[in-house]
Amino acid sequence: MLGCQCRQLLMPVLAVVTILHLVNRGDAMTLVSPLPEPPRLLILAQTPPSAEEIRTYKGFHAAVAAGDHEGVRRLMAAGNNVNATDAHGRTPLMIAAYQRDRKALRALVRGGGNLNALDRQHYDVLTIAAVLDDSAMVTLAISLGADAGLVTSPYKGTALIAAAHLGHVEVVQALIDGKAPLDHVNNLDWTALIEAIVLGDSGPRHVATLGALVKAGADVNLADGQGVSPLSLARRNGYFEMMEILQRAGAKP
Hints:
Layout: H1 4-10, E1 18-25, E2 28-32, E3 40-42, H2 51-56, H3 59-65, H4 69-77, H5 92-99, H6 102-110, H7 125-131, H8 135-143, H9 159-166, H10 169-177, H11 192-198, H12 204-216, H13 230-236, H14 240-248
Parallel strand pairs: 1-3
Antiparallel strand pairs: 1-2
Helix pairs in contact: 3-4, 3-5, 4-6, 5-6, 5-7, 7-8, 7-9, 8-10, 9-10, 9-11, 10-12, 11-12, 12-14, 13-14
């Protein structure tokens, strides 16, 4: 977790810090660097199960990792614990999210699976799916009872903040539709709107993400922990399209 001391170190160099996330995209780990200038602060996102972990899985974890839906059904019929955790605190539902397996997710929820459980890094199914840019999984999970307002991650954020950071606009919209809190402030003193600016790249997806948040009613004047407004942050980075969106919504410097 980044505490107060680390925030103080990070914020003065906001314009030049690159925060890198390791994002699981299928079988590969893709390095995403929203701001291209050094120095760099390496932050690890969710940790999917490794191949070695999967080889040691038993019960629901093994069945879900293998896509064995009949095995999931048999385990439920036998009364096995659908909310069992692995050594990292991952539940079978989290494995289903990593596997993008909506059928398994539905079955596990019907069997009593807890969509709002947190792993040891404090990630839940929704935030895992949000980082994977899996809007279909996000929509399904919300429809089955996942809490879009759950505070997650070591940064005390939300799935919406994670999605906005990465410019996953379809996921952002799904979370907005699911009543995710628009103005939650994480322990870096950033909202989803601010993360779309300071950790985005001003490309089409981050611009669209910002537009979706503004349209939904996100507070365009809610400043960061240093008192810097979203408009000033966008101006500092030369993000003119974002500046225009914010100004049209009544943002102040």
